[in-house]
Input
Amino acid sequence: MNFLELVQTRRSLRTYLDKPVEPEKLEYVLECARLAPSWKNMQCWRFIVIEDAAGRAAMAESMGESNPGRKALTSAPIVIVLCAVPKESEVWEGKDNMMLDAGLAMEHLILAATEQGLGTCWQGLFTEEKVRAALNVPEDVRVVAMTPLGYAAEERRPRPRKAMPEIAFKGKWGQA
Output
């Protein structure tokens, strides 16, 4: 599959099969995340891999009762929590490179998972302090996002995307 096919295939999945993820696939997606680019090559990201049911349930508990992501976190065999170390990045001209760097690493992980036939669903609506307490994350580290990881129990259709002229300009803002 070429890169365009890969990004066209990726979907946010919320239900997963009761099927374990092979260790080599888990290592592969983590390796792809490790190789993401970062500000000054500081590599501020850290990943916590949760495979036990109690740990996955604790991550679901960090979300609001009505959050559909709760089911995804408890049904998948793995939850990966993305953390970032602020002192291993910088804010420059008001731009928080830590969040960008962490996001790049997570996107590498999510696309690698898709390539391996695995599903994911980026989760950002959680109470950071609940996750921090459950996982013993130090106070000087941020919990940025999490994703379930597993084999999809659903098939999702593509979502609409904006047309190219709405997002890409030539020379100046708004020029086609």
Summary: The longest helix spans residues 97-115. Helices lie at 3-9, 23-34, 53-61, 69-75, 97-115, 128-135, 164-167.
